[in-house]
Amino acid sequence: MTENENTIQRTSKLAGIIDHTLLKPDATVAQVEQLCRETIDYGFGAVCVNSYWVKHCTKMLEGSQVKTAATIGFPLGAMSTKAKRAETKRAIKDGAVEIDMVLNVGELKSGNLDAVAHDIRGVVLEAHKRQAIVKVIIETCLLTDEEKVTACQIAMEAEADFVKTSTGFSTGGATVEDVALMRSVVGDKLGVKASGGIRSYGDAIRMVEAGASRIGASSGIRIVEEELQQQ
């Protein structure tokens, strides 16, 4: 590690809460490997990748403090709980210690809350018995405020560890208002991950000030570089 990289890790207050993210469908091996190198160099808390890439990332990150997060049921959430549980189990076996699952948005909007709870709880049980944490992506851009509150309440009752705003693949990403609303619901019981459209230091700081305890971004390097420029 270079002296510059050591300086970044010592002085950045945001790097450790950033999940450095690469979820695009055409991500290549070279891009995934670059993601891992950047995460180590900048001291990001985790890489967040589609579950297929977990084993490769785990190998690349061996010996570092960086965690591997896998997306589950991504990006739609509209698959069976059995499928999500199987994907979760496989991802953890491959080295993931954090699971970012998409809840069943359609069932939530249909008012079938028992189905939503069963879906989340199934993944939580699969993850927790293997010492992995679960972040529930509620896809705020598709929900009313009432539905956002309900989703957060269900995630709490299902004993998830985080609620997360967005996949970044729908009609919108994280907003300050949504992060604040989610934090008001979960209090200090769960973490809140802001994800989707966070591209600058200013964006990230606004999310943290609103209550985010984790940031998901593909622009982590830009965020940290801008942070360091302001010191």
If you had to describe this structure to a student in words, what would you say it looks like?
There is one protein chain. With 231 residues, this protein is an alpha/beta fold. The protein is built from 10 helices and 8 strands. An 8-stranded parallel barrel has the order 1-2-3-4-5-6-7-8, surrounded by 7 helices. Strand 5 (133-137), helix 7 (145-157) and strand 6 form a beta-alpha-beta unit. It is globular.
Task: Lay out the secondary structure.
Layout: H1 3-11, E1 18-22, H2 29-42, E2 46-50, H3 54-60, E3 67-72, H4 81-93, E4 98-102, H5 105-110, H6 113-128, E5 133-137, H7 145-157, E6 162-164, H8 176-186, E7 191-195, H9 201-210, E8 214-217, H10 220-229
Parallel strand pairs: 1-2, 1-8, 2-3, 3-4, 4-5, 5-6, 6-7, 7-8
What labels describe this entry?
231 residues; single chain; alpha/beta; 16% strand; eight-stranded parallel β-barrel; 10 helices
Give a nutshell description of this structure.
The protein has 231 residues and is of the alpha/beta class.
Describe the largest sheet. Answer: 8 strands, parallel, barrel
What is the N-to-C succession of helices and strands? HEHEHEHEHHEHEHEHEH
Strand content: 15-25%
Computed structural class: alpha/beta
Share of helical residues: 40-55%
SS field, number of helical segments: 10
- Calculate Rg over CA atoms: 17 Å
Model regions low in confidence, pLDDT < 50 over at least 5 residues? none
Q: State the end-to-end distance.
A: 22 Å
Strand order of the largest sheet: 1-2-3-4-5-6-7-8
Mean pLDDT: 96
Shape: globular
Q: How many strands appear in the DSSP assignment?
A: 8
